[in-house]
Structures are given as C-alpha cells and as structure tokens.
Design a protein that fits this description.
- The protein is α/β, with parallel strands linked by helices and about 220 residues long.
- It has a single domain, classed as TIM Barrel, CATH 3.20.20.140.
- The chain is about 35% helix and about 15% strand.
- The protein has eight helices and eight strands; from the N terminus they run βαβαββαβαβααβαβα.
- Strands 1, 2, 3, 4, 5, 6, 7 and 8 form an eight-stranded mixed beta sheet that branches.
C-alpha cells in the first residue's frame, strides 16, 4: 500500500491514452488513490476539444470518490511552452515536458529552464528521461535548474514510467524545499496508480508529506 497515494500524470482518449476520464477515475478508486490528475497532451486539446476536456473532468469531479484535478501536459520547444494563459486559468495545474529528441543534454537543460521561467507551468515532467541515451549535463547545469526551480516555486514529478529523476536530484529537491509529485504517466486505465517506484525514491531521499505539492489532499 502507498503511504502517499496519488498520481498526477495520466492520459485519456482525449490525447494518446485509451480510456475515458471515467475509466481513469474508476481505476484510481480501485487502487485506493486519494488524488488523481488528468493531464492529456496540449497539442491534442485545441479549440472545442479543450472545452470538452475541461467540462468532462469538471463533471467527474462531482462524482468521483477521489480528489480529481484538471491538468495538461504541455510541450517544451525552443519557442517556449505551448500552453496559453487563457488555458491555464481553466486548469488546476500544468506539467511541462521536453518531448523533442535532442543530441545535447545541455540543450535539454536550456529547454527546461524556459519552462521554469514560464508563469503558466507548475511541474516539470520526467526530467532527464533521455539522459541515459544522450549523456548527462554538467553538475553546474543541474545546479542552475535546481536554483531556478527553487526561485520560481516550481515542482518536479518523480516518474515511475521513466524512473527519473535520479535519487540525488530528488534528495536535493527535498533539501531545497522544491515540491515533488508522483507520476505513472499511464496511457491506459490499468496503469493508473503505478507509482511505487516514485514513492520508494521519494522516501529514500528523505521526503516527507510536506515535501509533496498536493500534500493537503493526502
């Protein structure tokens, strides 16, 4: 059983997931989660699709036996984060993730810095997911990311799907007071709540309830 049962990064058929919002809610309830976030990809949610998405989540908020939050997973590109302020106002939070395939880990870090400077962004998604393939940035660059996150009040997800960030990074977040969240990044209902790795790393790094972004719901 999870001590801090939450999952803030999940997908539905509104983007590249397979289930409905209701399917994800049912799975979260079955797993005993206290908090579930729906975070479909921003590039699927334009115009009327975004309106339907938000309305659907809002409807389920009133029916679910789990705290349900409306989020979105935005893309970080060289032009910035693809979520406008008008969208952010209708959401509970925004995850920003680097999905571009880059050859240079320092370039990856620069994109993350862009996201950290964006006032619409709350959480950085799966930080460092590609480092094992493209190499690791310098300690100085990692330090700059942590300093900027601390200064701007941003959080990082601990991704059970990608098993990132590394424990030393999580430990430094705890030390600096940078908030953290657990993430399955599930694209199908049966994957909802599969955040055991996230919690293990969090606790090994010395994390406590107050180090979690949504601690008030747990």
């Amino acid at each position: 059983m999870l001590e801090f049962p939450h999952d803030v990064h999940t997908h539905t058929a509104y983007s590249d997931g397979t289930g409905s919002v209701g399917d994800n809610v049912a799975a979260a309830e079955e797993k005993g989660l206290k908090l579930l976030g729906i975070t479909d990809h921003s590039h699927y949610l334009t115009g009327k699709a975004f309106n339907r998405y938000v309305r659907d989540i809002e409807r389920w908020k009133n029916e679910a036996d789990v705290v349900l939050l409306a989020g979105i997973e935005a893309n970080v590109t060289h032009s910035g984060v693809d979520v406008a302020g008008g969208m952010r106002k209708r959401l509970d939070y925004v995850i920003a993730s680097v999905h571009l395939w880059l050859d240079d880990p320092e370039e990856y870090v620069e994109l993350v810095k862009l996201a950290l400077l964006d006032e619409n962004v709350d959480i950085i998604g799966h930080f460092g997911a590609s480092f094992r393939y493209i190499g690791y940035p310098s300690e100085e660059s990692i330090g700059e990311v942590l300093e900027l996150a601390e200064e701007r009040g941003k959080a990082f997800e601990i991704s059970s799907r990608y098993r990132v960030p590394e424990i030393d990074f999580v430990r430094e977040c705890v030390k600096r007071g940078i908030k953290l969240v657990f993430s399955s990044d599930a694209h199908w209902p049966r994957g909802i709540g599969n955040v055991g790795w996230s919690e293990r790393v969090f606790k090994k790094a010395g994390g406590r309830k107050e180090d979690l972004l949504f601690a008030e719901f747990l």
